[in-house]
Specification:
Elements: H1 11-25, H2 49-58, H3 65-81, H4 86-106, H5 120-128
Length: 131
Amino acid sequence: MTERKPPGLPFESWVDRQIREAAERGAFADLPGAGKPLSGEGAPYDEMWWVKEKMRREGVSYLPPSLVLRKEADEEYAAALRARTEDEVRRRVAALNDRLRRAVLDGVSGPTVSLAQYDVDDAVREWRAGG
């Protein structure tokens, strides 16, 4: 839109006219999401909604690395308990322990969290018991 607001015309009237004319031309007809509810409709107001939405779309985590590692370790341990074979449980828990060991040696930024390694035999017993 390159047209400037004419002098003496109230700003709101000028904007309303621009929107109306664009709608009449069909400028809004094929916008993505047309006819669908806005995301977050009915959710409590959050002034950082757009930052969180952008980070979600970009796949960016807003957790400190130490908390991300703890979360991923918990998820990986749970996945190991859903393994099909005992060998797979042992392999997955051993790989997880290697990752935790490297993280402790290299240092992880963020708040201190327990990065204790998992006992492979305990994991196998838990797997045998049904997780």
